[in-house]
Amino acid sequence: MSATPSSQQPVRPLWRPWHWLPLLLGLAALIHGGLLLHGMAAGVDVSSERLGDLPLMLYLPQLDASSQSTAQPTVVIAHGFAGSHQLMRSFALNLARNGYVVVSLDFPGHGDHRAPLGGNLGSPERLTSLLDALSGAVAFAQGQNPNAGLALLGHSMAGDVLVRYASEHPAVSAIVAVSPYLSEPVDADFAPNLLFVYGAYEPEMIQQQGRQAMAEVAPSGAKAETTYGDPRDGGARRLVIANGVEHIGVLFNGQSQREALDWLDVSFGRRAPDQPPARPILTAGVGLGWLYAGLGLLAWPLSLLLPPMASRPLGAGLRWRKLIIAGLGPAVLTPLLLWPMPSDFLPLLIGDYLALHFLLYGLVTWGALALIGALPEWSEVARASRASTPVVLMMGSAVWLIYAIGGFGWPTDAFVASFFPPLERLPSLMVLLVGSFLYASADAWLVHGQMGARGAGLFTKVLFLLSLVLAVALNLNELFFLVIIVPAILLLFFVYGWLGFLSYRRTWQPFLGAAASACVFALTVTATFPVVA
After folding, report:
1. Nearest by Cα to 129 from 138, 115, 117, 111
2. Could you read off the pLDDT of 35-53 as tens digits, one per residue?
3. Cα gap 507→266, rounded to integer Å
4. Which of 131, 134, 145, 387 has its CA 20 to 30 A from that of 80?
5. Are 154 and 80 within 8 A, CB to CB?
6. Cβ pair 33, 42 in contact under 8 A
7. Cα distance between residue 486 and residue 206, in whole Å
8. With 0-12 CB in 10 A as exposed, 13-18 as middle and 19+ as buried, what is 514?
9. Alpha carbon distance 236, 508 (integer Å)
10. DSSP code, position 531
């Protein structure tokens, strides 16, 4: 690693009086987003329940005296593969605000469920495991609200489970299937009212399943946002394409929320299609946008309080020619080398492959840095890192990591998806942490450094995503669900790329941002992907 001439030494950013402005704006955005998210639960009593290993969330509408004597319809809500009850929170609150008794669940192996998901993909054992959990949630819901109508709402994998359940249980009056994966066709004799909702940016192969089910009742060609059949008689169907969203965004989309409520209200004869709902539709997307924007903006002035961690900017500082060589190597080699290798060494479905992908990608990146002579000279790094006392360095690093992980992780776990995994997953978390830190540290050293190529961080992150796409293309049957989480990985890259940039320009130490990114990737993967038997 060559020394940088002192005449070109950058100036470390310092706190200035005008930094109070982004600090106050960030706090205002954070508070505004939190109030919006908190306000979604107005008029709803929310409680957590557990039946054995099965975790449940109960949403009860706060009714006036005239409505308490009338049995309110019950809706059981189920998440998709690698999901949790938090992902379905917007649907649950909007329905409960409008008078429905709602119960949502975590499937086996997902979220806070203590039991693993049984069987293999598509096996009868796995379907039985999912159906048993759904049956338990339905029984609980009906016990809370006896003699009321029953509807089901589910996302992705749950769509298939709900259709299978309703085929055997005539008490189900209506289904809302959001971006469902269907293992079998839905014929014209299927009795419950059935609404399909897809995101406009979802793969055509997923949307096509819904169109085939619609063709059963509209042989001449079904049109979107057109109801076929009379919901009051049962067996009606409708297909909606939500604008501007994909497989996950569809869950937080106002159009999706409105169509689901309209479909259930019409199915239970609660109001006519052209009448407005009793209470307006609220979506978590706006509140989350303000909250995350506030956290990101706050990080800017807060980063200026970090102690210096190096006497000069550390990192490879590569120009484009060497950067392309060091970046392309791991992007291409990692999926090719992992293609023939087994990846079921962890009880995390698909998460085990991601652990290997992170690990090997990091190792190959470090190897590429060695080949081009850009490895750290650790003695020189140690000398440059004596910019503060060890206690100050440790305290500054700890506070930054707590903010980067907890500040963004807590609202994610509360309002979006499971983020902090149960303690039973600690061994998997540690394995993933090793792999993700190898990747994040190698990438941080690769893209940082004075005189390096502009846009290096964006370039390497795009290559990593393309590497995952190549891995899916080589093993589509086992890794298909990786395509679905690419937008989530892209969001993590954006957020933690920003935090890494802020911490580096203040500390000149690339490994602080790498540690935050590694912890977040390890937590996210461990908490998201299901535990299998």
Report:
1. 117
2. 999 999 999 999 999 999 9
3. 59
4. 145
5. yes
6. no
7. 16
8. buried
9. 62
10. B
CB 429 within 8 A of CB 348: no
Report the alpha-carbon distance of residue 356 to residue 243 in Å, rounded: 36
Residues with Cβ < 8 Å from 104, sequence gap 6 or more? 56, 57, 59, 76, 77, 78, 79, 85, 88, 89, 92, 137
DSSP secondary structure, 51-84, as one string: ETTEEEEEEEE---HHHHTSPPPEEEEE--TT--
Token pair 């501007």 in the structure block, residue: 244
Structure tokens at 95: 């329905």
Contact 32, 72 (CB under 8 A): no
Cα–Cα–Cα angle for 505, 406, 117, rounded to 5 degrees: 125
Instruction: Give the pLDDT confidence score for residue 70 in this predicted structure.
Output: 64
Q: Is 243 left (phi over 0), alpha (psi -120 to 50) or beta?
A: beta
Structure tokens at 133: 């959990």
Of 480, 533, 488, the closest CA to residue 87 belongs to 488
Q: How much is the pLDDT for 505?
A: 94
* Rama region for 99: left / alpha / beta (φ>0; ψ in -120 to 50; rest): left
Buried b (16+ CB within 10 A) or exposed e, 354-386: bbbbbbbbbbbbbebbeeeebebeeeebeebbe
Q: Backbone dihedral region of 189: left (phi > 0), alpha (psi from -120 to 50 degrees) or beta?
A: alpha
pLDDT digits (tens, 9 = 90+) for 323-349: 999 999 999 999 999 998 887 889 999
CA distances to 206, 363, 379, 472 from 484, rounded to whole Å, are 11, 26, 43, 11
Q: What angle do CA 20, 25, 29 make, to 5 degrees?
A: 150
Phi, psi for residue 105 in degrees, rounded to 5: -135, 165
Q: Report how far Cα 182 is from the mean position of its chain's Cα atoms.
A: 22
Residue 38: other Cβ atoms inside 10 A: 11
Average pLDDT by stretches of 10, the chain with 533 residues? 51 93 97 94 94 95 67 94 95 96 97 89 87 97 91 96 96 97 91 96 89 91 92 94 93 95 95 84 92 97 93 91 95 95 86 95 97 87 76 88 95 93 94 97 94 90 95 88 81 95 95 96 94 89
Could you identify the residue written with the tokens 């960030």? 26
DSSP lists the bridge partners of residue 55 as: 50
Question: Measured between alpha carbons, how far is 327 from 443 in angstroms, rounded to an integer?
Answer: 9
Residues 6+ apart with CB under 8 A from 233: none
Q: Burial, 417: exposed, middle or buried (Cβ in 10 Å; 0-12, 13-18, 19+)?
A: buried
CA–CA separation, 192 and 174 (whole Å) = 5
Strands 193-199 and 237-242 turn out to be: parallel
What is residue 3's predicted lDDT score, i.e. its pLDDT? Answer: 41
Residue 175, classed as helix, strand or coil, is strand
